[in-house]
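Worked problem 6 (solution included).
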Amino acid sequence: MIDIIARRAFIGAFGGVAVACSAWPLIARAQAVTRKRRVGAFSYLKEQDSESRAYVAAFERELARLGWNVGDNVQIDYRWTGGDADLVRRYAAELVAASPDVILVAGGSHVGPIQKLTRVLPIVFVQVADAVGGGFVESLARPGGNATGFINFEFDIAGKWLELLKQISPRTARVAVLRDAANPSGPGQFGSILALARLQGIEARPVGLANLAEMERGITEFARQPNGGLIILPNGLAIVRRDRVIALAAQYHLPAIYPFGYFASDGGLISYGPDAVDQYRRAAAYVDRILKGQKPADLPVEQSAKLALTINLKTAKALGLDVPATLLATADEVIE
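Solution. The predicted structure is:
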C-alpha cells in the first residue's frame, strides 16, 4: 500500500514538473511579446521650448491611442540639443549606443549625424526639407535604407515666400535670406529664391546662422540700406533663435516671412508653412508600424498635408504696412 501511494506521489510530482516545463516556453514567449520597447528621440530644439512640449504631447498622445503607453510598454529617451553642435555629436552617440528599437529624429541637421553612426537602427524623421538631397533616403517612394519619415516643403515654396513678402511689403527691393549653410536643404532653397529674385530685379543675399554673433552682424549690416526684407529658411538654428530673429526684424523695421506659424504667433509678421505638430502625430503611426515589424525601407516618405498662411496684423501695423485685403482673404489665421 505504501508503494502504491509513493508511486502516485512520484507520478504527480513528475507530472507537475512536466507541465511546468511545457508551460515555460509559453511564459517566455509572453514575456518577449510584452517587453518594454525603447524609442530614442533626437531634436534640434531646447527641452523647455513651448514647441517641444507641443510636439512631445502630440507624439505621446498618438502613441497611446495606438496602444503604446509611456512607462508601461514603451520607454522614450529624449535628447535636446538646442542647436549646440557638441551636443549633437554627443547625444547622437548616446542614442545609438543605447540601441533603441527606433529613433525619432527632428530636423535634417540631426538625421545625418545619426546615420553616420548607424545604417541599421530604424529612423523616423520629421521636419526635414530635402530627404533625398540630404542623402537620408534613396527616393521618397522607396526610401531603401534605415530611415523614412516626413518632409516639410518642396523647393518651389521658397519662391512663394518671396512672392508673399512682396505682397505684404511692396517696397521690398532687397532680401536677406537667413540660412544654415550646413543644412542640406539650404543651398537648394536659397537657389530658388535667388533665381526668382533676379527675374523680379530684387537683390538677394544670404545671412549665415552658424553662430549668434554672425547672424546679428549680418542682419545689422543688411538693415543699413532701405527697402529690405527678411526670408527665414526652415532650419534648427533659426527656430531655436526665433525670439532674437523676430526682435531684430522689429528693431530694424524689416518685414520678414517665416516658415512656421509659431513665428507669427511669437510676433513675426507673416508665415507660410506646414503644421509641425501634425508631423509628430503622423510620425507616431510610423513608429508604431516599425515596432510591429515593418521596415523603414518599405514606408514611403510623406509630405505635409497642408500649408498654412498666418498674418500678424499687430506687427504689420508696427511696421507701417497695410495688408492687402486679397492677402487677408487667403490667410488661414490672422493675429490681431
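Discussion: The mean pLDDT is 89.
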